[in-house]
Amino acid sequence: MTQLTVTASPHLRAPGSVRLIMWLVVASLVPAFAGSVWFFGWRALMLTGLGVVSAVGFDALAQKLFGRKVTVDDGSAVITGLLLALNLPPAVPWWIPVVGSAFAVVIVKQFFGGLGHNFVNPALAARAFLVVSWPGLMTAGWLAPRGGNLSGIDGITGATPLAVLKNASEIAGPGGDPAGLLAQAQSWPVVGRLFFGSVGGCLGETSALLLLAGGVFLLVTRLIDWRIPAGYIGTVLVLALVLPGPKHDLLPYLGHHVFGGGLMLGAFFMATDYVTSPITSRGRWVFAVGCGILTVLIRLWGGYPEGVSYSILLMNVATPLIDRFTRPRLFGRVKKATG
């Protein structure tokens, strides 16, 4: 006699699994990783390898210590280590990705119950921890990529493109020409370098084109909801357009905000994290718009030229509240009598 499992409706089945989803996300990051190795050479390979191996090792060790089943083959630790490495400047010491991976998988992930229980993105939390702990290393470890230079502007060293927009007067120096520097920064050749990757930055954020390739893969395979990257990037565009800023040439200026910094990496690969983003469609719009607002505010008036990491982390914390106020209305439920 065949036994049947009887459960309440609705009955939903999906062909995917956590392991398959995680490894597909890893595959989507391959173009950005390959680009980092091309642009920065062996250092990118070393830092990424250390980040991934450390994340997997610390994840397995923490699961053993907490008495949990070791599930490092599901790919989640690989994603954490890979994303953390792609968020690092290329000249940081070798131990930075090791310490960051330990913080990400042990403190942020396993201390809160493991995969699915962390309330913020582990890789971004680790990056924020590293920036606070070693700001000199995390904000000055820049290298010029192969075939380009750090700022995208000939003769300007030591400043990333967004830093040039934010601190043109300081970078130009006494007797310099800040207006001329902004004019050079906001030119189509510089925006083109931002798009293709021949400017400095973190390992994985250099080429917007390679990040878009991975993002399109995630969208086509429906691994992520289009609302979050569309809402995030769209909000940054609108606010950069309407808020006051160092606008010398409008379209290249908007190109800096979209292609420069970590916006593409954050919008497609970190803001869309299943665990730390809202579950409702309306909630995802709210989440994406909030990320965009915070990013632009930090870029224009904050202490750092980049604001993607902290924006997503702050909205991660707000996710439970967003879900609470955007959950759909339940029909057919009998309300309790009052009085």
Automatic annotation (TrEMBL):
The UniProt entry, under InterPro entries, shows: NqrB/RnfD, RnfD_bac
UniProt EC number: 7.-.-.-
Topology of the protein relative to the lipid bilayer? Multi-pass membrane protein
- For whether the record's keyword set contains Membrane, the answer is yes
The membrane spanning regions, by residue number, are: 20-40, 92-112, 124-144, 194-219, 226-244, 250-271, 283-302
Q: Where in the cell is it found?
A: Cell membrane
Q: Does the keyword Cell inner membrane apply?
A: no
Q: What's an example GO BP annotation here?
A: transmembrane transport
Q: Name one GO cellular component term.
A: plasma membrane
| Cofactor(s) required for function per UniProt | FMN
Any matching Pfam family: NQR2_RnfD_RnfE
Q: Where FMN phosphoryl threonine occurs along the chain?
A: T160
Source organism superkingdom: Bacteria
Keyword field:
Cell membrane, Electron transport, Flavoprotein, FMN, Membrane, Phosphoprotein, Translocase, Transmembrane, Transmembrane helix, Transport
Q: What does this protein do?
A: Part of a membrane-bound complex that couples electron transfer with translocation of ions across the membrane.
The record's comment on protein family reads: Belongs to the NqrB/RnfD family.
Assembly and interaction partners:
The complex is composed of six subunits: RnfA, RnfB, RnfC, RnfD, RnfE and RnfG.
Protein's name according to its UniProt entry = Ion-translocating oxidoreductase complex subunit D
Which organism's genome codes for this protein?
candidate division WOR-3 bacterium
Q: Which gene encodes it?
A: rnfD
